[in-house]
Specification:
There is one protein chain. By secondary structure, the chain is mainly alpha-helical. The protein folds into 2 domains: about 110 residues; about 60 residues, no CATH class. About 70% of the residues lie in helices and about 5% in strands. The chain contains 10 helices and 2 strands; from the N terminus they run αααααααββααα. Strands 1-2 form a two-stranded antiparallel ribbon. Helix 3 packs across helix 5. The chain is globular. The termini are far apart.
Length: about 220
């Protein structure tokens, strides 16, 4: 009995050793640095937008810095993706792994389209989470002139000064789709932005929202 326990312990230690050998600490550090920079400047933008409003010199200045920072980050991220593929959570940790998604999500449509299939494969292989893929699926769909699937993209109407859920396909079943990928109900998500989800009212407004998006 004692020998069996010692054998099992030795196997666990061996497995932990193998996992630590595969862990990429330098890459994790770089990705976490990029994550923090990405989130910090967007927090700065949010605070300035709330205080000074859209189109103010302060906000415009932050946007210019944000775009420059995004471009630098994108060069690093795409190089890693092209050389190593979508590095899994098991090798760099969850937060560092999310950095791939965040930077691609903040990139141009052409880049999003290029790496969307790679992220789909990464989700199937357990390297990243389906909920993040859902957000990228929505952004690409809208960028291509289609309706979003999960309701993750919120747009701002400058004419009415109100935010709204961008055109959504089959809104009746959006919460079912969100649940399948690990997202909270749409009403919970919108509540964080002080928005109220009214399904019937949204369906009535949908044709108008589609027209609004086609004009932008």
């Amino acid at each position: 009995m004692k020998s069996n326990i010692l054998f099992l312990i030795s196997i666990v230690v061996l497995m932990l050793g193998l996992n630590s050998c595969n862990y990429d600490k330098p890459l994790k550090r770089e990705l976490l640095k990029i994550w923090n920079e990405d989130q910090d400047i967007r927090q700065e933008w949010t605070e300035a937008w709330n205080k000074f409003g859209d189109g103010s010199p302060v906000v415009d200045s932050i946007i210019k810095r944000m775009r420059y920072t995004d471009s630098i980050h994108l060069v690093f991220i795409t190089k890693i993706l092209d050389e190593k593929g979508w590095v899994g959570k098991d090798k760099i940790g969850g937060l560092a792994n999310n950095t791939f998604f965040v930077i691609i999500q903040h990139s141009d449509l052409k880049t999003q389209q290029k790496y969307l299939p790679m992220m789909r494969t990464a989700v199937k292989e357990g390297k990243t989470e389906a909920r993040w893929l859902a957000l990228l699926e929505d952004r690409v769909a809208l960028g291509e002139g289609r309706k979003q699937i999960y309701g993750s993209q919120i747009y701002f109407n400058k004419k009415t000064n109100k935010s709204y859920v961008a055109p959504l396909d089959d809104p009746d079943n959006v919460d079912k789709r969100r649940k399948e990928v690990g997202l909270d109900p749409l009403s919970h998500y919108l509540k964080q932005m002080d928005l109220i989800w009214n399904l019937e009212e949204y369906k009535k407004q949908l044709p108008e929202l589609e027209l609004l998006n086609s004009e932008n």
